[in-house]
Structures
1.
Amino acid sequence: MIPGPIEFEPSVLRAMGEATASHVAPNFIETFGNCLDLIKTTWKAPNGQPFVIAGSGTLAMDMAISNLIEKDENALVISTGYFGERFKDILTTYGANVTILTAPIGDIVSLEAIENELKSKKYKLVTITHVDTSTGVLVDPKPITSLAKKHDVLSILDGVCSVAGEEIQQENWGIDVVFTGSQKAIGVPPGLALLVASEKAIETWKNRKTPVQSYYSDWKNWLPVMEAYQARKPSYFGTPSVNLIRALEVSLELINKQGITNRIALHKKFAKAFQKAILSIGLKTVPISIGISANTLTAIYYPEKIDGNEFRKKVGEQGVIIAGGLHTDIKAEYFRVGHMGSVNASDIIATLSAIEIGLAKTGHQFTLGTSLSTFQKELY
Ligand code: PMP
């Protein structure tokens, strides 16, 4: 129950074990093309340009930034935790002038602050972390991207902890880049960076004044490859992760069969019931309200006077694996529970039970069973 890598559907894992096809074999060309088509559906970006590259989510961040920013251009980072800082680091690497608006831990940055900043100078792009996995804070991208549009600024959404678990309408909301990593709600073992660029993003890249400063990430190398597979033709720049891409096809087909809207509604239902269950036993979430808590994970403070390591060990003894803290300022004060992908109600009940036993054994005072009955009542 960690926020990635998550547990994967058996059919996805079985697909990984199929014979490795040649990357130019007809069956693989169809698989890759199908993945690219299904990504556009999942992202709700019918005119977007999908990219699937071997690498982790950080490669997708690197690809978005390195292709769109040029040296000495201004970039605005809206940060709700650890992964906002990573955007700043990548932008700095490519020579951008970075302004970072950091929310207090567990909160979001106000629209007013964002608008004031966008008015203050000419920005090239703004980055948003949809769900920061270090805090579990969910940011609504819609009003930020419409501000960006108003000021003619590109918008980049880190959807590593949100794509296929939180609502995203890339095209309707006017987001220029949305990306994720395979190991989260998209439901494939780690190793693929998935990204969709808008027509405007591709246009901006084509009109660059200076060359892209990354060799591996440069769209110059990958755009012809993606276009070829979309047209069901072979192509090559770097050998694709054949087995992972076949697993991605299986997962995207499952998601498509379930329907992305249904899938997100189910994530929301489980997340809200879980969060209410956590509050019912006197715990506090890192996000300051359920309204800005993610569907995909929940970050929870340890009760005062409880030894976090001991607590997590006791939870582990119940057969449930949860994650420790990640945000550097509060790392030792909280834990994280992922509830995305194939997670079902029974998994969450088992998790709440393990959390209660862990709390009871480390001295937290509450009535055993409270979170379980809260969860049941919420779902009933
Ligand atoms: N952004 C967010 C929001 C993430 O949660 C993560 C991974 N936890 C990343 C970026 C980086 O992804 P990866 O670890 O796959 O490089």
2.
Amino acid sequence: MTDRPYIRPRRLRTTPAMRRLVAQTSLEPRHLVLPVFVADGLSEPNPIASMPGVVQHTIDSVRRAAAEAVEAGVGGLMLFGVPAAGDKDVTGSGADDPDGILNRALAALRSDLGDSTVLMADTCLDEFTDHGHCGVLDDAGRVDNDATLERYVSMALAQVEAGAHLLGPSGMMDGQVGAIRAALDDAGHTDAGILAYTAKYSSAFYGPFREAVGSSLQGDRRTYQQDPANRDEAIRELELDLAEGADIVMVKPAMSYLDIVRDVAEAVVVPVAAYQISGEYSMITAAAERGWIDRDAAILESLTSIRRAGADIVLTYWATEVAARLH
Ligand code: PBG
């Protein structure tokens, strides 16, 4: 025995009720945002082989998936558009065309759901360009930052006019938040917000997404996305995005960048989002399919870790499923 007070941290782990009482991090449906892919020219949803359980939607099926997600209580939806292969071009003209797939899907969902959820749109050209880059190219074939900003502005206006509440510029062009904010304000769209992809790293874990959006990219995005080796640069990007008017800031990917999520969360008072990307989804799914990990537990643990690191909002392909499970 002992004459010292017997300190036993395990006392607080003895029963499920005790653990629930002292749990520091919570996961609620409203914290989760569902990314969805809507493709043009499909007669039925098209499964994405490298993301089992995720599909490219038709407009009809995305309406059902969105209604189900909202019913489950998710915080919002992030839409990506996938034009038919023959409709991609060098400037990504489908992106700001009101009849482009993404804008049609936004209009359909806004008319179904009104303000009952938060509709977000990917404001980026890579799904729409035939070369697959997030911007337009100069004569030398390099991504032209300022010419791209003009395209983002046009795309942002089309998306807000179609019904988006929040725009998600994901292309990592310098000045993208400021250019979009100024254009929205000039057009009177002062209530439309910007979820800035603040620290978006050039990641190998985006692999399955490239299949999901039928990307035609040859090469990589290292001249615009951040180098995984860099930490301080995320804070530099953060300061710029805040100064340019970002309403919410995001770190992406999530799991390999939890230190960055923590850095950003400690530096700001605006909400922080993190994106659990395609490769994160696919790794857990594949390992679970092989019986190597417990799928449901791994999903919850991954999302809890991202919240614990400091994310207020988590974009995850499991949003609907997990939100429903949390009830
Ligand atoms: C680019 C974009 C990417 C993702 C979202 N927007 C991929 C990329 O940069 O190649 C990745 C999402 C995911 O992997 O789940 N506009």
